[in-house]
Design brief:
Layout: H1 27-38, E1 47-51, H2 58-71, E2 74-80, H3 85-97, H4 110-116, E3 118-120, E4 123-124, H5 126-131, H6 134-147, E5 151-157, H7 163-177, E6 182-188, H8 190-198, E7 210-212, H9 218-232, H10 238-248, H11 252-265, H12 274-297, H13 302-314, E8 318-319, H14 320-327, H15 334-343, E9 347-348, E10 354-357, H16 362-368
Parallel strand pairs: 1-6, 1-7, 2-5, 5-6
Antiparallel strand pairs: 3-4, 8-10, 9-10
Helix pairs in contact: 1-2, 3-6, 6-7, 9-10, 10-11, 11-12, 13-14, 13-16
The protein binds adenosine-5'-triphosphate and magnesium ion.
Length: 370
């Protein structure tokens, strides 16, 4: 099949960690957080935890929130949780806030410099740079940004419990106590976030709203496909649009893959046929296997897989007792494996005693893989 090299692929980009051309189906979530930014300092929605499985759009959401918040008067520091996170946050604020001080190159000297803690713009004086820790530096930065009418938004991706996380979280609390205009959005895998919530030092995060990023609406995906194909001049019947949208099962990463391959495989000016759709599904699911399923399943043991395959065979939502019965009462005990599988982002427990696969198509993959 001739692949289509003529369309610059901006409408679909099936890679992790990018900002999609349009972030679909999460308007309510985004609006709620932005609403929080408009509320008084310290209000609950100004510190939110987003949780979702791989490929559900956590990183993309933070990028979207960052852009939207910027338009509402926030300087944004976006980091991935790691040991050096506190200083990375400071640097991000200095970098992204510097444009507000372009006309402000005059070096502050004398007594003032010591008091303000800055030598110019958002660059700390040598003494401040040396002596102050994260919290004091943040406090100075918040004041300096406030002079320009700007707040400070911290975005933390791949959040997990760590010393750096504790430092940032306790500083945040203190900054709020000092009435600084600061807000924070964090995203991570559900189990990583639960480790954060169980961390005693981070208990205040228990009060933070937790927002789950699940599958997105198939109708919205369909509408986006329709617009996108029109834009690039590709024909698609209602049936094809239905089929393409349904094939994504509402999984954002798969939507990017299917959209991408559809444009790639359909000749210029032609219409999408069922046979193109077949090839697209095959290619997209192949990528899903490689980039999502293999990394999820690789660290698992043989017994983990015994449970997963049994669960896939049973299909749909499975009760723990049925699953144990399927594996055999004398076989490995589900008790031992359940927690690990949930922590690995393989399965979820929507209700007590019930289990489902965490990502679409994973059950089918397990049944065909041997
Ligand atoms: N709501 C959405 N609308 C359109 N595209 C989306 C949406 N959410 C995610 N995507 C796209 O899906 C892909 C995966 O998203 P992203 O990298 O944000 O996932 P993630 O949750 O951060 O995954 P991981 O846990 O592996 O880091 C990206 O290509 C992203 O652009
Ligand atoms: Mg991510």
């Amino acid at each position: 099949m001739k692949t289509n090299q003529n369309h610059p692929q901006i409408l679909f980009q099936p890679t992790f960690g990018n900002r999609p051309e349009k972030y679909i189906g999460r308007d309510g979530i985004i609006e709620q957080f932005l609403e929080g930014l408009r509320e008084p300092i310290g209000s609950r929605n100004r510190c939110t935890l987003f949780l979702g499985q791989r490929g559900m759009g956590k990183t993309a959401l933070l990028l979207e929130l960052g852009d939207r918040a910027q338009a509402e008067g926030y300087v944004v520091a976006r980091v991935t949780a790691h040991e050096g996170m506190p200083s990375a946050i400071i640097e991000q604020f200095q970098l992204n806030g510097s444009k507000f001080f372009d006309n402000d190159k005059r070096k502050l000297t004398g007594v003032n410099a010591g008091v303000l803690g800055f030598s110019f713009g958002l660059t700390f004086s040598e003494a401040a740079q040396r002596q102050y820790g994260f919290r004091s530096k943040m406090s100075l930065l918040c004041d300096r940004l406030a002079e320009k009418g700007e707040g400070a938004l911290i975005l933390i991706d791949e959040v997990h419990s760590s010393a750096a996380m504790r430092e940032v979280a306790s500083a945040y609390q203190e900054l709020v106590g000092d009435r600084k205009n600061v807000a924070i959005a964090m995203a991570g895998l559900p189990h990583a976030v639960s480790s954060v919530l169980n961390d005693k030092v981070l208990t205040f995060l228990n009060r933070a709203p937790r927002v789950e990023l699940g599958l997105i609406s198939i109708n919205m995906i369909r509408a986006y496909f329709e617009r996108a194909f029109k834009t690039v001049g590709i024909g698609a019947t209602d049936e094809i649009l239905d089929r393409a949208a349904m094939a994504t099962r509402g999984f954002p990463y798969l939507m990017q893959l299917i959209g991408y391959y559809l444009i790639q495989y359909t000749p210029d000016g032609a219409s999408i046929t069922d046979s193109i759709m077949d090839k697209v599904e095959q290619a997209a699911l192949g990528d899903l296997d490689e980039n999502v399923f293999k990394p999820i399943l690789n660290p698992l043991s043989d017994n983990d897989l015994v449970f997963l395959r049994a669960m896939a065979r049973l299909g749909g939502t499975v009760t723990t007792s049925r699953l144990q019965a399927a594996v055999g009462r004398k076989g490995p005990s589900l008790q031992t494996y359940r927690k690990r599988l949930i922590e690995g982002g393989v399965i979820e427990s929507p209700r007590r005693g019930e289990l489902v696969f965490a990502v679409p198509y994973l059950d089918e993959y397990l049944l065909k893989e041997k």
